[in-house]
Amino acid sequence: MRRYATSVDLRRALEARLRQQADETGTDLSRLRRIAVFDRVASRLSTAEDRTATKPDLDAALELVRSFRAQTSTTETEH
Predict the structure, then answer these.
(1) What's the total number of domains in the chain?
(2) Domain of life, per the record (predicted)?
């Protein structure tokens, strides 16, 4: 796993990677950002030593699930 000197460096690298993926696949950049956040929250929740999560973690995960459901429902009805 690569280590970054600062959180800003990590953010820049992640943003560059997401932009490249968006360009290559045609996927909306904001959707890729949401997926990255969701994956990170899920990872933090699944690796917590005491298997408890803070309320902000759970709220963030729930909000992401809701936004994915709403977006999926809208996309399916458009096609």
Answers:
(1) 1
(2) Bacteria
